[in-house]
Amino acid sequence: MKPGIKDVAKVAGVSPTTVSRVLNNRGYISEETRKKVYDAMEEINYYPNEIARALLNNRTYFVGVIVPTVTSPFHGEIVEQIEYYLSQKNYKMLLCNSKNQMDTEKAYIDMLRRNQVDGMIVGTHNAVVETYSKLKMPVVGIDRYLGEHIPVVSCDNYAAGQMATRHLIDKGCQHILCIRGNSKLKMPGNNRSQAYIQEMEKAGLPQMILEVPFIMENVEKQKLIYDMLNAHPEIDGIFAGDDSLAVIALHVARQKGINIPKDLKIIGVDGTKQILGFVPELTTIQQPVKQIAKVAVDKLIDLIEGKTAESCMDLPVKLLEGQTT
């Protein structure tokens, strides 16, 4: 006979109600009591009936997470942290890679709705905002505007752009190229290039902006940057909107025999473990990935529980100075 909640309660020395509260993460439970319950569950080999719990609470305890691709260092790391923080709330994640395709993203939205997920966390780069606005379920955007009443979580993108541009100016750069994504997409990340424009205006320096869409293949991105450096040999600084673009720019510059950082200084944004592991010399503005993931999960759970949730787009960034500036 399979053990039940009463058996767990007996071994743990608590009431069945307390065991139920621990399993459903309801109300205040001390860490000591929580440990007793989990130790008892392990001792008698008890596994909660997830289907019964879902029916009882009218939830599936699944959350859909849609990102462009987990091969992107930032999105890969953010997904890892989202999964961790969801697990702390007894939720599971259904991961969807949109592959930067609008139709694929819409198909995933339909799939997640059919599977009755309790909510979605979205960080894609496609123009399907109206689809999310019509959804009658909790949704949180990560660095992405999805609708008037959908909360957004991001770092302080303006501060990131300001910090990066000022750093290059302070290092003596006079001709700074800003490489950014598609300006037609409504994203908080657009504030990075806006900060660049304003800082260059303050310093009385010329502005150069190169748009490199996120969906573009790396070979195409390399060609755009290569051609830009050929056309403007005076460029002595590059502010890349993310570290992946910064690494591509670094690769192109080295191909051209440009001395880094003597003749060209490069700075990116993100500061993920993967990039810092493979290109430790890169100077970057680091986003608080763990904090972004935690805040996004907390806000989604609030919405699932019927509470309100406001946008949070000012999480702090910091400069990590390497050898590329």
Secondary-structure map:
Blueprint (H helix, E strand, L loop, with lengths): L4 H8 L3 H9 L6 H13 L6 H8 L4 E6 L5 H16 L3 E6 L4 H13 L4 E4 L6 H5 L5 E4 L9 E4 L1 H14 L5 E5 L9 H14 L4 E4 L6 H14 L5 E4 L2 H13 L9 E6 L2 H6 L4 E4 L2 H16 L7 E4 L2 E3 L5
Parallel strand pairs: 1-2, 1-3, 3-4, 4-5, 5-11, 6-7, 6-8, 8-9, 9-10
Antiparallel strand pairs: 10-12
* Structural category: alpha/beta
Q: Note the run of SSEs as H and E.
A: HHHHEHEHEHEEHEHEHEHEHEHEE
Q: Please tell me what the overall shape is.
A: elongated
- Secondary structure tally, helices: 13
Q: Could you give the distance between the termini? A: 67 Å
Structural notes for this entry:
- Helix content is 46%, strand content 17%.
- Helix 12 (273-278) links the parallel strand 9 and strand 10.
- Helix 10 crosses helix 11 (243-255).
- The chain starts with a helix and ends in a 5-residue tail after the last strand.
- The protein has 13 helices and 12 strands.
- It has 325 residues and is an alpha/beta fold.
Give descriptors for this structure.
single chain; 325 residues; alpha/beta; 6-stranded parallel sheet; 6-stranded mixed sheet; 13 helices; 46% helix; elongated
Quick rundown:
With 325 residues, this protein is of the alpha/beta class. It has 13 helices and 12 strands.
